[in-house]
Amino acid sequence: MFKKVLPLSTILFLRFLGLFLVLPVLSVYALSLNGATPFLVGVIVGGYALTQAAFQIPFGSMSDKIGRKPTLFIGLVIFMIGSLIAGYADNIYTLMLGRFLQGAGAIGSVVVAMIADLVEEKTRAHAMAIMGGFIAMSFAVAMVAGPVLGGLYGVGNLFYITAGLSLLAIILLFTKVPTPPKIVHIYNKKAKVSDILKDRNLLNMVIVDSMQKGLMTMAFVLIPVFLTHTDYHFDWQKKDLWEVYVPAMIMGILAMGPAAIFGEKYNKPKTVFLISIVLFIVSFAIMGLTHSSLVFVFGVVFFFIAFNMMEPLVQSMISKFAKVHQKGTALGVANTSAYLSTFFGAMIAGIMLGEADRSTIGLTVAAIAILWFIWMLIKFENPVKHSFLFIPLNEVDMDKLKNLEHEHIAEWYINDTEKVVVVKYNAESLHEDEIKSQILK
User: Structure pTM?
Assistant: First the structure.
């Protein structure tokens, strides 16, 4: 499993490293460009998420039709072109174009769908945790490297470094990433967005993903401003921000594994999500109310623990609830909503900074998280735990298979590469012998 996940996780690491490198210094750099205004700077910081949102569903659907690898290649090329334009920019509008193009290379849902294709469901949470760990590590590395490299070589050159990382990711794609198996789904071949939104489980996960990402981008806007701006009296230097981000990320990474195991192995994702939301509430309340730098750091630590506890389970649950022919589209819908929340979260945080004091901001965001907690407590249910039956294709009567229906069978499909029929079913309510009796020759 690790060999299948490692190349794809490395590609995500390189891509997110490129995005995160500029985060600690982007707003200051953008303000120095011709035509800059605070509003446009906010758009540039969160603008990539807007085009990510616009292209998640098209890229997810494209990957279902033409394949994961070609779609990943197209996305990485677009991201690289956007990075080069951003590096060349000498005014705010050229930088904005580059950032929008960076976001247009929307490969996140495609990578997750590809991992879901390559990894069995029983080990998928572990695979998602590995992927999430690589993303978290890219952030930790970027928080240290971004300010240092930007100070030494200029922030504009960070975008050229990002372009180089994209090229390296393309090389890895064609040299190390395995080709996923060809899946033949006999019924309901066309994945529809409306079907995703009508599915209660998938809709709940879209909401979870959106709230998590919206709070994330709020935190990325608020934390550096609270710590460095003289109005908030902490008086940190921008170059010292890594001192709060790195320990917070380390604690978040340490929390990720146990949360994934408890949520997936013991089938208790609801418990993990509720604990995470409580930590979000406490985090923003602390960041809004405390006058101590040390206590503020603890608030940041709580935030990253909450975020990282959720991260692997969010993607795993979406791919678990979606049928095999829907994975790319379902992840595209979820990521579209999440990136819209990312953009609007940054914009709302920027507006709040101009209109309210720190305590009001912190308590307002905490109140939003409380409403989310209540929604999850009432609406979300732990998923049914399914088992998988694998039967050689040559042993199956295709006519019987096409008519296979049972209330405890979630779906079935053919893995044409490995020549097996796969039946996903509830083992607590249905025995595999009963399934075999209905479809074997």
Answer: 0.75
